[in-house]
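Subject: Sanity check before I submit

Could someone independently write out the structure tokens for this chain? I want to compare against mine line by line before I put it in a report. The sequence has 307 residues.
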Amino acid sequence: MIELRDLTRKFNGNVAVDSLNLTIEDGKVFGFIGPNGAGKTTTIRMITTLISPTSGTVHVNGLDASDPEEALQIRSQVGLLPEIPGLYEALSAYRNLDFYAALYGVPIDRRKERIKELLEMLEIWDRRDDIVGKFSKGMKQKIAIARALVHEPELLFLDEPTSGLDPEAALTVRNFLLELKKEGRTIFLNTHNLDDAERLCDTVGVMRTRLLAKGSPSELSQQFWGRTTVVHLHSISPAMISGVRGLNGVTGVQQEGGDLLVDVTDPASVNPDIVRELVRQGGQVESVNELKRSLEDVYLRLLGGGK
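---
Independent answer below. Compare away.
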């Protein structure tokens, strides 16, 4: 478990992270989204004990990051993919991973097994003996992800894992992360890729120095727009709109072409009443769905540009 309380970091008087309070349960995937300079990377660096907070506390699995001995224990329990991979480019992929696994004290037999596991999962086992300096950015990113996992950490921190990757490499990385999620591993993800966040994360935090909002993608949508049922009809009459508007649990109705958008308190209980009323008014209902707002809609609503 990760627990942050009133976490603040300043650089030369400028506030990078302001009074962040956050709890991330074991086995969950948490995603930070926000613009450049929002404090996302700084937060990861504080949690992984690479820098100290100006004030506030960090606890990882009950360990206090401000205690030097406990900070070392935290480092042994986490894996980190930084925004810039920082690999040894004169070494092969295999030797890069073997070097870092040895630093973490992974026994030699287990190192061999683990490196093969990771490189096969990332579809680059056949390139294990190639020099990393000759790899594409996507290949280097895969090696860096494998490095973050080579010692089988309890918590994984990923800073922009699919940034700059071609679609095929990004898909491989995304599928790999989904496999890690199925294993129940705790993952902290910083990303500008809102589609990645929506697909991968149990909980998303929108950050701009302060934490602006937090919840699952669907919870965030409901916070700002509530729930809306979309009924597609062959045709729509004023009587249908008036009838639906008068139902209990309906808070708003508007027409968009052949669709009736109905704001409701609880779709499960109100939708049957909506359909019955429309049929009573002579409506020919062709489909009923819930309007889905994307994480991009939430992001723009919070950070400007969305309604």
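---
OP: Matches mine. For the report I'm noting this point. The longest helix spans residues 167-182.
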